[in-house]
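Example record

One chain of 232 residues, shown exactly as stored in the release files.
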Amino acid sequence: MADKPRFGLTAVDSVPLHEKVYLELVRALMSGQLRPGQKLTSRKLAKELGTSDMPVRSAFTRLQALRALSPMPNGSVEVPLISAERFEQLTAVRTVLEGTAAELATRRINGNNLRAIRRHAAELTQAARSGDIDDYLRRNHDFKFGVYRHCGNEQMIFLIETVWMQVGPFLRNLRIGFEDDLAGILGIDYHEEVVVAIEAGDGARARAAIVRDIEEGATHILGQVNFPEVPH
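Predicted structure tokens for this chain:
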């Protein structure tokens, strides 16, 4: 019997492998599938992803440059811990970038794209009601980037992704306080308001809803988590 995957990643087998491995790790970081402080080794990940060590090591190097992973003395890497102050700083950056992306995207989203965004929103709501935090975090990622990718600015998307790689693992802490009923998380989740704003073509309203979603989620995390004292 094959080993059960340990990190929730999907095996990749198409070319170019180094890029597929990198993107798989990026998605795992951004969607909160990897935890702060989690240790990763190229050998174990290569086995899970069905590839050799080389593309995994290449991905590790790229992600270290983006501060998404930290090197360990034994050659492995770690999903870094961050201080509360740095989390707040990253949250402030998110509100600016993601609020702007949502506003710009509202002007460009057409009927077909809007249907996809509605579907992502419905899946996000269902994930919360089903009580599955992993599915909720994946759907949260898919919904938000389903909006942002229509902003028409690839450099802005790159910056948003870079920030998400650093904060994504900490978004798992959104579940704290909702262990008995994850649906309660919808009280600090404003994705439905974002959809309404996009349907109305109101970019300013979409920006405001995204900013509120980010800020209330961050406030919840800061109130629930004892962040470590680590260098910025």
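Notes: Residues 1-5 have pLDDT under 50 and may be disordered.
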